Amino acid sequence: MSVPPAGTALAGGTHGPRALRPLLDIVLEALTTGAEDRAGPLPSGGPDTVARAVRDACHPLLPDHGTGPHAALRSLVHTLAAGAADPADPHCAAHLHCPPLALATAADLAAAALNPSLDSWDQAPAASTLETLTSRALAALVYPQATEPDALITTGGTESNQLALLLAREAAPAPGRPHTGPLQIVCGANAHHSIHRSAWLLGLPEPLTLPTPNGILTPDTVHTCLANLTGHTGPVLLAATAGTTNSGAIDPLTELADLADHHGARLHIDAAYGGALLFSDTHRTALTGLARAHTVALDLHKLGWQPVAAGLLAVPDPSALAALTHQADYLNADDDTEAGLPDLLHRSLRTTRRPDILKIAVTLKALGRRGLGELVDRTLAAAQTLADLIEDHPRYELHSRPTLTTVLFRPKGADDTTLATIRRTLLTDGQAVLGRATTPTGLWLKATLLNPHTRTGDLTTLLKLVEGHIPR
């Protein structure tokens, strides 16, 4: 059987790989030339310049007669690479935006080519089993003492947090304590914005947001708040954070778990950032208390080096997921389920789902827990090195020693306007991508290190780039 022309050939089947091979050569070449043209962590010139380059490459985007697959692929992949913020560059350090492993990226290509959809077994026979095995293995890291822990695959921390709030809203009340009121969420000012947004989406009351002047929840403040909710007739959910977006801080998990138990509240821990410490023999003790949560959000497209998306929501028992049960005759008919076909529809609020589990499973099997733990250790060590460089530099001040891989710093004496201008200038020049964090002590530049291969010289250069824009 002959292979159809490159533009209409399919990626699957026995002939798909043959059709893909020359196209992949073009993609790899275009990724290389695009990165060479960019020559840094992001394109220079700012939004207008980048938008103009994209428009020029696309025009006309829908011609009457196409340019052909090779030309279109080469042009647009090159343009995307040249105009990308590249998290593999050690000076691209603004966000929890990781450089993915080449291994995981290659696995993701296979997932795209096969295109299983994890909403029914007959669309994803092998992928559904792989997802079950892998998600349970990761859940066992979170809940090592649980008999049958489980995890749902999500698009990231935001979806995981939303699912956690939904499960808390739908959870059966404790014996003798019927719920007549709505779920009340208690969180810190350090909580991810998705906690508040999810409460809004689910029609819940505005979360009670407690002050976190030192970046973490204070047990005394939480105790007072929960004690004041004694008369609340609905369930209460305490949402804690293991790795805040602003600074990477970790709430006192054990103390908060004690308080949740004492006051009869559920506990959710957003460990989208810090959960990867579970891989590390050196740093996993920072997550002591995590296993006492009713739900835990994880996200391996942060300190897991996976292409987006790679989130999970872990629970200690699969019965906790009963509220997600849903039936659609064309996907999980009762007689099919009774006959032994796995029911996948209760594994997500989404219907069509790509097999994001494949890249995760390949990475886990290839590197093992200790291999991933070494990458975690190396990245946390780089953050400590950057903190050392800042403390030793006469023109900088350090906000605090890093807990994870986020380092907050600023030039001594710089006001907020100066800091914001320095950051935007570095962005516009294409020299560095730094974030910003507002704390009770003002605005800070934020370096979020996620490249495990970052060297001390890269960090020294980053500080020199910032220093070159400090007003004299």
TrEMBL record:
<keyword id="KW-0032">Aminotransferase</keyword>
<keyword id="KW-0210">Decarboxylase</keyword>
<dbReference type="InterPro" id="IPR015421">
    <property type="entry name" value="PyrdxlP-dep_Trfase_major"/>
</dbReference>
<dbReference type="GO" id="GO:0008483">
    <property type="term" value="F:transaminase activity"/>
</dbReference>
<comment type="similarity">
    <text>Belongs to the group II decarboxylase family.</text>
</comment>
<dbReference type="InterPro" id="IPR015424">
    <property type="entry name" value="PyrdxlP-dep_Trfase"/>
</dbReference>
<keyword id="KW-0663">Pyridoxal phosphate</keyword>
<protein>
    <submittedName>
        <fullName>Aminotransferase class V-fold PLP-dependent enzyme</fullName>
    </submittedName>
</protein>
<dbReference type="InterPro" id="IPR002129">
    <property type="entry name" value="PyrdxlP-dep_de-COase"/>
</dbReference>
<keyword id="KW-0456">Lyase</keyword>
<dbReference type="Pfam" id="PF00282">
    <property type="entry name" value="Pyridoxal_deC"/>
</dbReference>
<dbReference type="InterPro" id="IPR015422">
    <property type="entry name" value="PyrdxlP-dep_Trfase_small"/>
</dbReference>
<keyword id="KW-0808">Transferase</keyword>
